[in-house]
Automatic annotation (TrEMBL):
Principal EC category: hydrolase
EC number: 3.6.5.5
GO biological process: receptor internalization; synaptic vesicle budding from presynaptic endocytic zone membrane
Record-given protein name: Interferon-induced GTP-binding protein Mx
Region (Disordered): 710-838
PH domain sequence ranges: 486-591
Main location: cytoplasm
InterPro entries: Dynamin, Dynamin_GTPase, Dynamin_GTPase_CS, Dynamin_N, Dynamin_stalk, G_DYNAMIN_dom, GED, GED_dom
The organism of origin for this protein: Nothobranchius furzeri
Subcellular localization(s) per the UniProt record: Cytoplasm
Length: 838
């Protein structure tokens, strides 16, 4: 990594984390990061404090870290800290940083040792740090302490898995050396999500606290439980040192002295310690970010494309623009009509697979629920035969001595009409069910108007009111059809009332099998009243003095008012024949005279036990005819009811929404208040715009980094213990194509473990990177006389038959290109990052 572009990778990810954290979303992006995991008191906090060189993390017994801490270390001349939730405030005193972490933790989790997955973002600027980003996670525990919930172990485990399960996350597994490595909580959970150890970096703490005669040499040499990226040992301050405020710089010096003086670690001292750990994490995180950049760019682009269409309408959005409000109102009303029609007709773009809705539920009412309600109507056989018998006798009246020879049609008509009345209840119930489904459909379609609450309320109110109006007309039509089919008599009658109540007045009366209605005139447009026939009887009324009318009365046998506050109403005709005719009509409707009913009740027991055979035959005949006729009526009603409801109610509601709803909305109130945007919609729009701009900025940053980064071969993994310490790293210039051996590696190998080598010191001046390695090799040229080195040879002019040369050049020997060497010769450098590792 020999260019500035690679140095900016970690700050780039920091900017992305801040951008998405500030808008409260992660945008479903797995940003490259390092998560620090380990058991309680494993030394995680001490390692992080050693990186910064300051005491700034909360300490104490039990669980201290109760929220993830995203720690961003930034190399800077000035030293201070910033929190994302305290924008603009710089913390120079790191004791205040600790207090702010504790306060922010308690603000979310409370003071009962609970935990929360909501992270705290802390950025530390310091000249003593390398660019690095780590996430300090709560330490794993086994037993709940104090007010902690009983499942605290599982809560912490679930939180850790949320971070380390992602492939873009490196795992820094911290384990104390004074415990058995096989029982390490950190390595155990890392093994679950990273079984090959490709993402795990082992850190061994408390090496100075191991029992005398024991050491962690096999662990640190990656022999015991090998990891691809190896282990690094550190020595932190003891609790006594922390309590005594021992300076961290002095602690780092003591750590260095410990590794150099310990017989088991002195041969690997250059690869141990906090400083080496920080450099290693910097290098590995940088490499990891570089590897994941292509995938990150693809995710950002796909997210940006998914927002493009929706954000387009918000780019020049002005909430108070009247033109926009008018346009939005027209579009939403039109869309509401389309959605309503699609829900009813079943042609919607989004088909619900969980339950029936809209037109499907109405269809179910028509073809399942309504027929079932009709089938539920059961006739009482004994009662039906009794009614038929009474009807036959009442039709013959006083003229019969025995039952007539022929079955009377009038008795059949009366019985059939009375049975048809029973079909009214399921018809009205069907209408009620359809009404409810229509209202539910309206509410479902108005969900898309949530952005404008007032518009939704008005739309729902107007359409629902119209549907209720059509409900009344639909029920009137159904009852009118019933009335038309069972009208018994029509004619003029005089309604007698007291002078105080209006006196006598003529009306047009319509008698059906169910009710007695009277209208202003025979056109039957202005209905004055409708009187149900239930529990009504007839009685004779004597003519009044000087009266030329013949009068009869209707009263309720339960002593209830019949009309307004009248217990009975008196009806008058011009002649006695008209009175008898109306009484006969009432008889057909099931309204009997008062005395006749008494006689019928007294005669009922005798008729029950003795029946004329001829009467019995006629009863059976009418019974069969009624059964057949009712079957035909049921079939007709099952066919007509859906058509009537569709025509009067459903189709009319669709036409109303398309043609009249907009006019009703304009007349309902002020358009500005009608199109006032909801707070949730405004917040959603702002978040979407912030997300959109954050994605564009992220893509811009990634594009700049990629454009300024020279493509070089990736170095091998950090775990290079398979390379002997004394083995040099060969560097070769590509030989001519004609002499290229088949097994010759085309590129230079990575750096060997140990202290970093500065290319500037090794070669005297920074070397320019070579052109693309995939280009054809340039034939070597002979070196002019006098251009060879006196004390050593140029490593780049080595002949092909020499397999390798030492990678390290003595610092005292200059390494310059011979004066006579051509300046355009290709240069190959090792992929090292001196600017980050110095």
């Amino acid at each position: 990594m020999g260019n500035r572009g690679m140095e900016e990778l970690i700050p780039l990810i920091n900017k992305l984390q801040d951008a998405f954290s500030s808008i409260g979303q992660s945008c479903n992006l797995d940003l490259p990061q390092i998560a620090v995991v380990g058991g309680q008191s494993a030394g995680k906090s001490s390692v992080l404090e050693n990186f910064v060189g300051r005491d700034f993390l909360p300490r104490g017994s039990g669980i201290v870290t109760r929220r993830p801490l995203i720690l961003q270390l930034v190399n800077n001349i000035a030293e201070y800290a910033e929190f994302l939730h305290c924008k603009g405030k710089k913390f120079v005193d790191f004791d205040e940083v600790r207090a702010e972490i504790e306060a922010e933790t308690d603000r979310i989790t409370g003071s009962n040792k609970g935990i929360s997955p909501i992270p705290i973002n802390l950025r530390v600027y310091s000249p003593n740090v390398l660019n690095l980003t780590l996430i300090d996670l709560p330490g794993m525990t086994k037993v709940a302490v104090g007010d902690q919930p009983p499942d605290i172990e599982h809560q912490i485990r679930d939180m850790l898995l949320q971070f380390i399960t992602k492939e873009s996350c490196l795992i820094l597994a911290v384990t104390p050396a004074n415990t058995d490595l096989a029982n390490s909580d950190a390595l155990k959970i890392a093994k679950e999500v990273d079984p090959q150890g490709l993402r795990t970096i082992g850190v061994i703490t408390k090496l100075d606290l191991m029992d005398e005669g024991t050491d962690a040499k096999d662990i640190l040499e990656n022999k015991l439980l090998p990891l691809r990226r190896g282990y690094i040992g550190v020595v932190n301050r003891s609790q006594k040192d922390i309590d005594g405020k021992k300076d961290i710089r002095a602690a780092l010096a003591a750590e260095r002295k410990f590794f150099l003086s310990h017989p088991a670690y002195r041969h690997m001292a250059d690869r141990m310690g906090t400083s080496h750990l920080q450099r290693t994490l910097n290098q590995q995180l940088t490499n990891h970010i570089r590897d994941t950049l292509p995938g990150l760019r693809s995710k950002l682009q796909s997210q940006l494309l998914s927002l493009e269409k929706e954000v387009e309408e918000y780019k020049n959005f002005r909430p108070d623009d009247p033109t926009r409000k008018t346009k939005a109102l027209l579009q939403m009303v039109q869309q509401f009509g389309v959605d309503f029609e699609k829900c009813i007709e079943g042609s919607g773009d989004q088909v619900d697979t969980n339950e029936l809705s809209g037109g499907a539920r109405i269809n179910r009412i028509f073809h399942e629920r309504f027929p079932f309600e009709l089938v539920k109507i059961v006739f009482d056989e004994k009662e039906l035969r009794r009614e038929i018998s009474h009807a036959i006798k009442n039709v013959h009246g006083v003229r019969q001595v025995k039952t007539g020879l022929f079955t009377p049609d009038l008795a059949f008509e009366v019985i059939v009409k009375k049975q048809i009345v029973k079909l009214k209840t399921p018809c009205l119930k069907c209408i009620d069910l359809v009404i409810q489904e229509l209202i539910n459909t309206v509410r479902q379609c108005t969900n898309k108007l949530n952005s404008y609450p007032r518009l939704r309320e008005e739309t729902e109110r107007i359409v629902t009111t119209h549907i209720r109006e059509r409900e009344g007309k639909t029920k009137d039509q159904v009852c009118y059809q019933d009335d038309n089919s069972i009208v018994i008599r029509k004619g003029w009658l005089t309604l007698h009332l007291s002078i105080m109540k209006g006196g006598s007045k003529e009306y047009w009366f319509v008698l059906t099998a169910e009710s007695l209605s009277w209208y202003k005139d025979e056109e039957e447009k202005e209905k004055k009243y409708m009187l149900p026939l239930d529990n009504l009887k007839l009685r004779d009324v004597e003519k009044g003095f000087m009266s030329t009318k013949h009068i009869f009365a209707i009263f309720n046998i339960e002593q209830r008012n019949v009309y307004k506050d009248f217990r009975q109403i008196e009806l008058a005709c011009d002649s006695q024949e008209d009175v008898d005719s109306w009484k006969a009509s009432f008889l057909r409707a099931g309204v009997y005279p008062e005395k006749d009913q008494v006689e019928t009740e007294e005669a009922a027991p005798a008729e029950t036990f003795s029946m004329d055979p001829q009467l019995e035959r006629q009863v059976e005949t009418i019974r069969n005819l009624v059964d057949s006729y009712i079957g035909i009526v049921n079939k007709s009603i099952r066919d007509l009811m859906p058509k009537t409801i569709m025509h009067i109610m459903i189709n009319n509601a669709k036409d109303f929404i398309h043609s009249e709803l907009l006019a009703y909305l304009y007349s309902s109130g002020d358009q500005n208040s009608l199109m006032e945007e909801s707070a949730d919609q405004a917040q959603r729009r702002e978040e979407m715009l912030r997300m959109y701009h954050a994605l564009k900025e992220a893509l811009h940053l990634i594009g700049d980094i990629t454009a300024s980064t020279v493509s070089t071969p990736l170095p091998p993994p950090v775990n290079d213990s398979w390379i002997p310490e004394s083995s040099p790293t060969p560097q070769h210039r590509p030989p001519p194509a004609a002499t290229q051996p088949p097994n010759r590696p085309p590129v230079a190998r990575g750096p060997t473990p140990g202290p970093p080598v500065n290319p500037t010191q090794a070669f005297g001046a920074p070397l320019n990177p070579s052109p693309a390695f995939g280009a054809p090799p340039i034939p070597s040229r002979p070196v002019p006389p006098g251009g060879a080195f006196n004390s050593h040879q140029d490593p780049f002019s080595a002949p092909p038959q020499i397999p390798s040369r030492p990678a390290r050049v003595p610092p005292g020997v200059p390494s310059r290109r011979p004066p006579g060497a051509p300046s355009h010769r290709p240069t190959i450098i090792r992929p090292a990052e001196p600017s980050l590792l110095d």
